[in-house]
Specification:
tRNA (uracil-O(2)-)-methyltransferase, three-stranded antiparallel sheet, 10 strands, metal-binding, S-adenosyl-L-methionine, transferase, alpha+beta, 10 helices
Length: about 300
C-alpha cells in the first residue's frame, strides 16, 4: 500500500500471516512451498508482477520474491487499494483458503474469485477508509528494535545480580569442595551448591525480578550471558569450575594459533576478585586477567 512507484524484495522465512502464525491449508505441499505461494499471492493481490528467484546463500530458506512493476495503470490505484483491504479482511476472518497455484498465473485470474467471495465480508467503514486502516489490532514493528536479551541492562545492575546469585550458591549448605591435583598438590576450591532457577529467583527481591521479567529469558538469559561465572544445565545453576573446561579444538592456522596462545586478556577474572578462594586456575592458565596489570 505504498506509492505506485514502489518496488519490493522479500525473503520469506518464518511462517507468519498478517496477524499471527500462518495456518496451513495444503497437505500436498511442504509447509515452506505453501508459505512461498502465499507470499507470492500477496504480491499478486497488491497488483505486482511477482518474480521468483533463488539466492546463492548458505540457507535452506533462500527463495525470494521481487516486485518491480505493476499489473495495472496508476488510474486504477484506488480500485486495487479496495481489493487489498478486502484481502486483508479475508486473512483476518479466514474466509478464503489460500489458492493452490504456483508463481506465473495471471493476476486477474487469481483475484476475481477472491474479491467476489470476500467482498461481502469487509465492513463498509474499513473499505471506505482503505487509505488509513491496515487491520484492527495491527501494530507495525518499531523503527528502532528494542534489545531485550539482557545485554542492554545497566552494568551495575547485572554485576549486583551476578554477585548475589554467586554468593547464594557459595553459601548454600552443604558446600561442594572440588579437589584437583595440580603439580603434585591437592588444590581445594569451593564450587558451592547447584540450585534450580526457581530457587534462585525466590531469593531475589521483587524489584530485581520485575526488571528481569521485561527481558526475553529473564534470569536464565542473564546467567547464561555471564558464562564466565555460571553454568546453566537442565534448569539448574552451577558455579563454573574452569579447571574442568576442555581446551578448544585447534583448527586455526598456525599464525593465528600463536597469537591466541599469547592470551590477550581483555577482561578481569571475576573469581580472582570476588571468590573467597580466588580463581581455581593459576594466572598463566586463566583466560581472564588476574589484576589490571594483565589487561591488554
Amino acid at each position: 500500500r505504498s506509492s505506485y512507484s514502489c518496488c519490493y524484495f522479500v525473503l520469506p522465512c518464518c511462517f507468519f500471516d498478517f496477524h499471527g502464525k500462518y495456518s496451513r491449508r495444503q497437505s500436498k505441499k511442504t509447509q515452506y512451498r505453501e508459505y512461498l505461494d502465499f507470499v507470492a499471492q500477496v504480491g499478486f493481490v497488491c497488483g505486482f508482477h511477482v518474480e521468483e528467484d533463488c539466492l546463492r546463500i548458505p540457507s535452506t530458506k533462500r527463495v525470494s520474491f521481487i516486485g518491480k512493476s505493476r499489473t495495472y495503470p496508476p488510474t486504477e490505484h484506488a480500485l486495487i487499494d479496495k481489493q487489498i483491504t478486502q484481502f486483508i479482511n479475508s486473512r483476518r476472518t479466514c474466509v478464503v483458503a489460500t489458492c493452490d497455484r504456483r508463481v506465473g498465473f495471471k493476476h486477474k485470474d487469481h483475484c476475481d474469485g477472491l474479491c467476489e467471495e470476500v467482498g461481502s465480508e469487509a465492513p463498509e467503514d474499513e473499505t471506505e477508509t482503505a487509505g488509513t486502516i491496515w487491520m484492527p489490532g495491527f501494530r507495525p514493528r518499531e523503527k528502532v528494535e528494542q534489545i531485550r536479551n539482557c545485554a542492554s541492562l545497566p552494568r551495575d545492575f547485572v554485576d549486583e545480580v551476578v554477585l548475589n546469585v554467586a554468593n547464594l550458591l557459595l553459601n548454600a549448605a552443604p558446600q561442594k569442595l572440588c579437589s584437583v591435583m595440580q603439580g603434585g598438590n591437592t588444590n581445594t576450591w569451593n564450587q558451592g551448591e547447584s540450585l534450580s532457577l526457581r530457587e534462585v529467583a525466590e531469593h531475589l527481591n521483587k524489584e530485581t525480578l520485575k526488571k528481569l521479567k521485561s527481558e526475553y529469558g529473564g534470569l536464565q538469559t542473564l546467567l547464561k550471558n555471564n558464562h564466565q561465572v555460571f553454568e546453566v544445565l537442565n534448569g539448574r545453576v552451577h558455579i563454573r569450575d574452569w579447571r574442568k573446561e576442555k581446551p578448544p579444538i585447534k583448527t586455526k592456522p598456525e599464525v593465528k594459533r600463536r597469537l591466541s596462545a599469547e592470551a590477550f586478556k581483555t577482561r578481569l577474572c571475576w573469581f580472582f576478585i570476588h571468590h573467597p578462594d580466588g580463581c581455581s586456575l593459576p594466572s598463566e592458565a586463566c583466560p581472564y586477567a588476574h589484576g589490571t596489570e594483565e589487561l591488554r
